[in-house]
Amino acid sequence: MDAIELLKNRRSCRNFSDIPIDDEVLDDILDVGLNAASGGNTQPCTIIKIRDKDKKSKLKDLLGQNFIEKCDIVLVFLLDFYKQKRWCELNSAPYGRNRSFLEFIISLEDVMCVAQSIECACTLKGIGSVYLGTPNLRYEEIKELLELPKLTIPILAMCLGNIKGKLNTRKKLHKEAVIFEEKYKKLSDDEIERYYGEKYQNSNTFINDKNSYLIDELCNIASTVNGKDFADKVRANIENNGYINPAQKLFGLHYNPIQMIGMNQWIWNFFKEQGFDFLDETFHINRLDVK
User: Fold this and answer.
1) Would you say which domain of life the source belongs to (predicted)?
2) What is the pLDDT of residues 169-182, one digit of tens each?
3) How many domains does the chain have?
4) What is the DSSP string of the chain?
């Protein structure tokens, strides 16, 4: 199978064997990440490679994924302005990236380019990998565990290891729902229903005596976020269908909007403590004057 076919058939791996990754293979994979695209070639990414069993166990407890202990290596990807700022200080250069939201976005994109390049390299080398987004829920704990300095933010982690068993396939949205020609195509309601219906078919949660509490839970969330009238509409929808549909389950229960929105202040506070200040209004520049 050629490289394109391998990448088209990539799968996340959560079941790892006890066989460690060959050091030469790992070096090749990491070298691909080091050569990833970067805005201005500034490379604001640091990777912490974790193989220590005790540290992986602590990460498992923090991030709540049992397979973390099973994998060979955990990579933690940091957005790192600490090294850049210190380099500028040592060379008498001005530095303000930590006070610019635009620079943060660009640097976040850079970190993701590194991570995705490594994920692709794993696929090409036959190494299993899976992203972990839960570091975003454990900023302070990861900061302490990994001894992170100011101006660093853990963005995500990735488990790597040799694959055990067969990887599960997951349905993706149809190409026509994702790739538009020349301009944005506003899909019709029927198209949206069809494309998402194809992806999440057979994913309804049918209501029974054991899970009927989910109706009240979902309606309470809907009422808090969108008001009582909308919550009544949600309840009527569920009772009429006899099930909680995939959209309700995914964006109402799994990614609970009360929790997601409720973490805004905590995330903002942690970023400020780490030296990031995106609301700095010291300067006012017309963006069209920026070359």
Assistant:
1) Bacteria
2) 889 999 999 999 99
3) 3
4) --HHHHHHT------B-SSPPPHHHHHHHHHHHHTS--GGG---EEEEEE--HHHHHHHHHHH--THHHHSSEEEEEEEE-HHHHHHHHHTT----GGG-HHHHHHHHHHHHHHHHHHHHHHHHHTEEEEEE-GGGG-HHHHHHHHT--TTEEEEEEEEEEEB-S-PPP-----HHHH--SSS-----HHHHHHHHHHHTTT--EE--TTTTHHHHHHHHHHHHHH-HHHHHHHHHHHHHHTEE-HHHIIIIIIT-HHHHHHTHHHHHHHHHHTT--TT--S----GGG--
